[in-house]
Amino acid sequence: MSVExxxxxxxxxxxxGPSGAMAAKSAALGGASVLLIEKRQEIGTPVRCAxxxxxxxxxxxxxxxxxxxxxxxxxxxxFAPDGTALKLQANEGEIAGFVLERKVFxxxxxxxxxxxxxxxxxxxxxxxxxxEKDTVVGVKISRLGVDKEIRCKIVIGADGVESKVGRWxxxxxxxxxxxxxxxxxxxxxxxxxxxxxxxxxxxxQYAPGGYVWIFPKGKDRANVGIGLLGNKxxxxxxxxxxxxxxxxxxxxxGKIAEINYGGIPVSGGLEKMYGKGIMLVGDAxxxxxxxxxxxxxxxxxxxxxxxxxxxxxxxSGDWSEKSLSKYQRDWEKLYGKYMRVNLVLKDYxxxxxxxxxxxxxxxxxxxxxxxxxxxxxLVKIISKVDKKLLLKLGAAYVGF
Length: 400
Fold this sequence. Notes:
One of its GO terms (molecular function) is oxidoreductase activity, acting on the CH-CH group of donors, NAD or NADP as acceptor. The chain is of the alpha/beta class. It contains ten helices and 18 strands.
């Protein structure tokens, strides 16, 4: 690790969120020399996330100790437009997931990348890519008023949903309005909640084409947010207007301690996440779950895959586009079918009327949801109740 930015690295990672940190760590562990840059002066802020994540596989990426966790989660309640409640619950004695302290978690991820050997610099902004013969061969960086060019073999873009890196490299990263959610979130305190239970509110009165969420961060504090699809934000119905209305009714005496805004890609992922000398990870590659909007775990997996492929490419001396295509194959093998199924489920839900949603909820309420805390398990139950969904899922559903 260096206290000064070198002129050349094997791999440069742009963006210090969990996906970028994981990519840097994975590449460094594979023997590559790695530079990780973050444009903000502090890792982990602002928090553009509800901070929830399932327990499964998380220990693979980091030791998830109590210092990283705000709250253990054992259940979730989904409210239909008419108030019908579907109660999902982990098996007795089990923890389904966590609400993280993202500011602490993100810093821990970057520290793990540094410990693996990556050089980390904050307040370092990528201003462009160095291109030769349509191939990315470096990054232009501005840091503390000084411009610098860094040569490298591979660039990994982890710069979020608004990814400039992808556009600079010629990878199609534009999102249709139907495939991006506009999100607003309050961190609230002095509110009455079940601290071990997440809540979701569906319906046009709450969030047309989206949902409102409550993710507990303790006995009287929670992330309370909303996500609306871009094509539903119209006629003056801004996400913050809907969220304010919800909060007034649900938590009239609650206090807002923090507010965050952000875009959430729900496209199911880029068709091509790599190019000549370039790979995109996390939100930059649109690796977010289309139905939940969650992207922490999928982003970590994308970062691990990209970092390993980058390190192997450097080691072999072949970092051609063909060599980097293994990254997409690894991603598709693990997440491809999951994303396709959830994209169908998202479109199915978005096109559903409140009346249809209520009818479905009434049927689903007859089922026992104990042990059902993962989306695939929920999808299987829904598809048994609504055969139209099963037909829409078609081949994508087989083996899900």
